[in-house]
Fold this sequence. Notes:
The complex is a heterodimer of chains A (107) and B (119).
Chain A: E1 4-7, E2 10-13, E3 19-25, E4 33-38, E5 45-49, E6 53-54, E7 62-67, E8 70-75, E9 84-90, E10 102-106
Parallel strand pairs in A: 2-10
Antiparallel strand pairs in A: 1-3, 3-8, 4-5, 4-9, 5-6, 7-8, 9-10
Chain B: E1 3-6, E2 10-12, E3 18-25, E4 34-39, E5 45-52, E6 57-60, E7 69-73, E8 78-83, E9 92-99, E10 106-109, E11 113-117
Parallel strand pairs in B: 2-11
Antiparallel strand pairs in B: 1-3, 3-8, 4-5, 4-9, 5-6, 7-8, 9-10, 9-11
Amino acid sequence: DIQLTQSPPFLSASVGDGVTITCRASQGISSYLAWYQQKPGTAPKLLIYAASTLQSGVPSRFSGSGSGTEFTLTISSLQPEDFGTYYCQSLTDFPLTFGGGTKVEIK
Amino acid sequence: EVQVVQSGAEVKEPGESLRISCKGSGYSFSNYWIGWVRQMPGKGLEWMGIIYPGDSDTRYGPSFQGQVTISVDKSINTAYLQWSSLKASDSAIYYCARTTGSFYSFDYWGLGTLVTVSS
């Protein structure tokens, strides 16, 4: 099974900052990766799939890149509503594992 | 409009059985995988398993194989997650979600079903 390791586990940044979250896969998964945002008490929301394809309705300040074993989620200019926990997910081969999450706090 | 609607919160005692449901609407239910995701209190997301309503093809995560059963009744556009004998450690929020058409990412999520198992 594929293991996904996210870093950092926690980050605190100011409004307007650029933020990058990394997801590393235990083996190559091509571009089969998704990113989600989850706010407290709510269901996760799909942000990006296929490593870099922005889900409809997601602001363009979110972007994804990478392939193989290393992927990044970038928020170009952090907004107050971007707080929450971000998860990556492998989309190749069952089980479709989630990463451990990165909690983003707004300073 | 695509919607995924889950059944309400449950409070059960250890050893009891339970089935929770997930109803899809606004799309061709048979043609999209439906998955289940567990979130234990204060913890991350865990992929439990997935089912294809068209032919009931079902896959489980290794931690959940043999512990739960995922099923579907496509005549009523509803997927199910069931336990035969609950444990306290099954207390969690359970989300169901629909996959996107060409990838296994989850694009539409239910609100979650809180399951509390306590004596």
